[in-house]
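new request in #modeling-help
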Amino acid sequence: VIELFAITRAQEPPPPPPLRVLVAGGLGAVVGPVEDEEVTADALWHHEQIVEALMADRDVLPARYGTRFEHDEDAAQAVAARRATLSAALDRVHGAVELSVRAVKAEPLTTHSALVALARDAKQLEPQAPDEILRAAYLVDRDAVGAFTARVADLQAAQPDAQILCTGPWPPYSFTEQ
Amino acid sequence: MSDKILHRPPDLDLFATDQPRLEDALSRRIGADPENVERGLAQLVLTIVELLRQLMERQALRRIDAGGLSDAQVERLGTTFMELDRRMEELRGEFGLEPEDLNIDLGPLGRLL
């Protein structure tokens, strides 16, 4: 059984062992041995760290934690079958990372539109915490992360009662599907 | 994960509410919360019983469809399955489980029932 970590272009530098790349349909499926049988917060972080290490020097479509295949051929087949969709998604996230923003007691429209202006794409998510008025993911060019973070700080300064949290850079989890 | 914070709000604790939610989701998935072990075990056993019940019911329906049973036998099967269904409902009630709790998420394979 192997675990899928991410989809990349086929022609990327090889990942560090024990990771391997299965080439299928012009894409690369980065797989490795299944290390954590139990689902724990640590296991999720371990998966995240592997994907983030890959993200450092290539575009990735992160795989959801727990995406496993019996054999190499099964993984390659699954990737090849979705070649067009995955390839389009890789184009979409090329050179960008995901930043997450959550805001409490801020002005939602002002905050969101000020941030969207610096992002390539954005996805608003359902607020989860009490008083949360904005929970969104932004697809931001790697070299615009600093400007984006500065904009968040400006928004925070302009709204003294607000609480704005910005985290990242994350693999583009929210932008792998259209 | 503090190194992932790009902008820290004045009151970071406001955003800490997701942690229990994550832990809750994880422990539900692996059933590791000691206080819930009994309920988790009952849930697992009842899920298996429910799976068997549904398989038997399907098998019985197939035999009824095939026409190999007398009216009296069909009648008795019907009563038996109604009784099983009622008993299942009672057991669920005792452990505070809803019908949708009796299922197992098999990940990419979908759900058991």
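bot summary: The mean pLDDT of chain A is 91.
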